[in-house]
Amino acid sequence: MRLVIVTGMSGAGKSTALKFLEDSGYYCVDNLPVPLIGKFTELLALPDSEVEKAALGVDVRAAHTFDELLVNLEELKEHNVSYSILFLEAGDDILIKRYKETRRAHPLAGDGRVDVGIKREREALKIIKQRSDYIIDTSRMLTRELKAELDKIFIENKAYKNLYVTIVSFGFKYGIPIDADLVFDVRFLPNPYYFEELKYKNGNDREVRDYVMSFEDADIFLDKLKDMLLFLLPNYIIEGKNQLVVAIGCTGGKHRSVTLANALFDRMNSYEDYGFKIEHRDIDKDAKRKM
Predict the structure, then answer these.
(1) Burial level of 44, CB count in 10 A (0-12/13-18/19+)?
(2) Which CATH architecture fits 2-155?
């Protein structure tokens, strides 16, 4: 039997994860009292049980929940019951935004503000997060992307990528992405904007790509950036980071930054220990077309 404990920050997507697992054939129970976890697994292990996969949702509705959970998980190990822990995470600003949109009260906020509840929850979840087998940050994930990641882990049984890197191109004229961890300025390269035949195209077009990559400095920059990321990524994992945003900017976010973001993605995407995705934040802003 495969047992998954689903937990994490309130508002990070636990209900969505449980719904997906249920749709995928898992027997799911949300908010089962923690003292009953042992008895639940005993019933599932009976010879006439037809349940082969189960998922349990655990949250912080009771202050003592996670102390009891750790004790119960140790007892499961003693009885040779294997399990994995899925932890759903999201940034504080994202969680606050989600609570405002749904107008729900945070379970640990009491009569206080949502951010107070989030702070208390993070402290309560600290140990269980450290012991989790899978940590997924949903801050930048669409629902379909979360489902795709869960599908790879729990249905297709593919190797879990413990760090996801988003490479995003942007234009400095529109501001640096607020969630960027690393920011690189590629305005040192000649700007295709000043060429009439390239001005109305972008870095996804072959002509712009060929122009930008025709400069030796573009290749040198990519080689050095790749080497730096390969050094940084395992060290970020050691520090517990599971999401990284690498932002590459030029003036308008359409030509140089798009070209180099695409090229970096192509060079890094073959490293199977990490997950990569790419976004072009400003590529369609102030779009102009040749008359």
Answers:
(1) middle
(2) 3-Layer(aba) Sandwich (3.40)
